[in-house]
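=== Structure Prediction Worksheet ===
Name of assembly: unnamed complex
Input type: mixed (protein and possibly other molecules)
Chain count: two
Listed entries:
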Amino acid sequence: MLDMETKPNGPVAAVFVAAGIGSLVLGIFVVLNEVSPDVISKFLRFDESYGIGKGVGPLSGKVVLSVAAFLVSWVVLHLVTRGKEVNFGRWFGAALILVFAGFALTFPPIFEFIVNLFPAAE
Amino acid sequence: MEFTDREIWTVGHGLVLGTLFLLAFGGGLAGLYSLNARYLTEDGIAERTPRLLIGSVVMAVVAWLTVISGTFVVYPWYRAAPPEGIDRAVQSDALGDFPRYWLLASERTAEWHKLGMEWKEHVAWIAPLLATAVAFAVIYYGAQLVRRGEIRRAAIIFFTLAFVAAGVAGLFGAFITKAAPVA
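=== Predicted Assembly ===
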């Protein structure tokens, strides 16, 4: 077992980056929801528009879109990297940057700081 | 002694699933860390791999169940708006049935919503994404993971970040529930 050949790492690199993309998309919509309460926040109310989660409000759109971004990017990246050996360090580094960006954008002091850069959002 | 529907759901969301998540995290992390060719014989690897698989898959499934139940069942109770006639500026007993508004009615408690709930409701959703990536890596490689140190280390980092995301959400959830229970 210790001497066996291993499978190519492409599909694993793909899912790690896809998780990062899902995290970043979540963070981006958290910010956009605050920046544009009249347009984007209204768009994100999937509970009212599509009946997904009655009473959940804009959070329904944010989580549906971030999960969709994760799944779609996972499928696309999986197809791109299937059967390939990639530079895993580089892919994982990109995934970590995306995840940390997602973490940061969901943190209220950070997204409020960004929102304050857009006076129209006040 | 009896429980309301809300109490059952909040206990299931926070306590039952939270405990399972912690157990799965502990088992999965120990499994990933110790799946090292320097420490193990072939028999040892064969014995540990199924446990690692169960730990990582259970953590991913529990993470999804936790955020879905929290967002689509418990959160609407927290977020519900009081009807006309209830003063939103005073922390009255009547306003106590509407936790978000009760917290915002006083500067002393408003940060539990503005910082705690605003972060919790979002950051929690990062946990299942990361846990799913780790579960896929474990399923994909199985025992071969012992030969893939860089992926094992990456999985440990993602696993830990998933735990941090869930931990932030769980901790704020516990404090907010204590300040303004939905049940």
